[in-house]
Structures are given as structure tokens and as C-alpha cells.
Specification:
- By secondary structure, this protein is an all-alpha fold.
- Helices cover 74% and strands 0% of the residues.
- Helix 5 runs antiparallel to helix 7 and helix 6 runs antiparallel to helix 7.
């Protein structure tokens, strides 16, 4: 049964990828088009994605007894703590954090998480604007064979590694 989440994720990835490719879905492009030429075609996809996420969250909320870590802020903390103690991690999950016991910083201060989220969001948004599309769109275009999108994804991975290894510890050191 340990393989079930991987299979479900793969199936959902194919479904979202197909729908994203057919609809030309792009969050950055939707905001750009609305701002520059008042075209709302791509922006409708952003709202549809938000509504779908809200409906999906509601469905999972009713399935919460069957899914032990959903929603994580209600009943997932103890399960995370048990798994972490087995591998020697001494952090305690807290419902105040965006991710229980966030492994990026191991910080219990919400300010560190907010600053990291703002820095990361601005960085990805800034680079995505220059690239001409959000990471979702870049993944779809990479699957279509776009070399520039493949390079963008490679840069996204390198940027994430640098962010977690350099910027996150620096922000943590400043706030502790």
C-alpha cells in the first residue's frame, strides 16, 4: 500500500498536465495578459484552479479519518513526530508553521517561514515573468520538448538547492 500515493500522484500529474497543455494554463501569463491587455482568458484558469483546490480540500476534509495526515494542522503533527523520532530528528511539529516542523530551517519562529516564503515567491515570480510563464507552464512546455523550458526547470532545481542551502540558513541565523 506504500506505492498508492505515488501512483495517485502520477495519475493526477498526467491529468493536470494534459488539461494544462490543452488550456495553455499559466498563472503568470494570466496576470500578465490581464494587466497589459485586459485579456481574462488565462486568468479564468487561475480562478478555476483556486475553486478546484477549494473543492478538493473540502472533499479531503470529509475523508480525513481515512487519511491520517490530512489536514496536517489537526492530526498530522503526532504522526510526523513519530516518523521523525525514528530517524533521529528532534524537531516537534507545530500547528503554527506552514509545514509541520519545516525541515528547511527547523525554526519554530513563524517570521522565518514568512520571510522565506516572500523571498522565494518573489524570486520565482520575477524569474518566471522573464521566462514567459509560471513553473507549471514551463513543465508542460518541457514535456512538449521546449529546450528553453527544460533549461528553466534545470535552473529552478539549482535555484531551489541554493535557496535551501544558502538563503534559508542565513535567514534562520538572522532570526534566531
Amino acid at each position: 500500500m506504500d506505492y498508492l500515493p505515488a501512483i495517485a500522484t502520477l495519475c493526477l500529474g498526467f491529468i493536470f498536465g494534459y488539461l494544462g497543455q490543452r488550456a495553455r494554463m499559466c498563472f503568470i501569463g494570466g496576470m500578465r495578459d490581464w494587466w497589459l491587455v485586459k485579456d481574462t482568458y488565462l486568468l479564468k484558469g487561475l480562478f478555476a484552479f483556486f475553486i478546484s483546490a477549494l473543492i478538493g480540500f473540502s472533499i479531503f476534509h470529509f475523508l480525513a479519518p481515512a487519511i491520517k495526515t490530512f489536514p496536517w494542522f489537526i492530526n498530522g503533527g503526532n504522526l510526523f513526530a513519530a516518523k521523525w523520532s525514528k530517524i533521529g530528528v528532534s524537531a516537534t511539529p507545530s500547528f503554527m508553521l506552514p509545514v509541520p516542523g519545516d525541515p528547511i530551517t527547523w525554526s519554530y519562529k513563524i517570521g522565518a517561514h514568512l520571510i522565506l516564503a516572500i523571498i522565494g515567491g518573489l524570486g520565482v515570480g520575477f524569474i518566471s515573468t522573464f521566462a514567459g510563464g509560471c513553473p507549471f507552464r514551463q513543465h508542460v512546455m518541457a514535456a512538449e520538448g521546449s529546450r528553453s523550458a527544460i533549461l528553466y526547470i534545470f535552473g529552478l532545481i539549482v535555484g531551489a538547492i541554493l535557496f535551501h542551502k544558502i538563503i534559508a540558513p542565513f535567514v534562520k541565523a538572522l532570526l534566531l
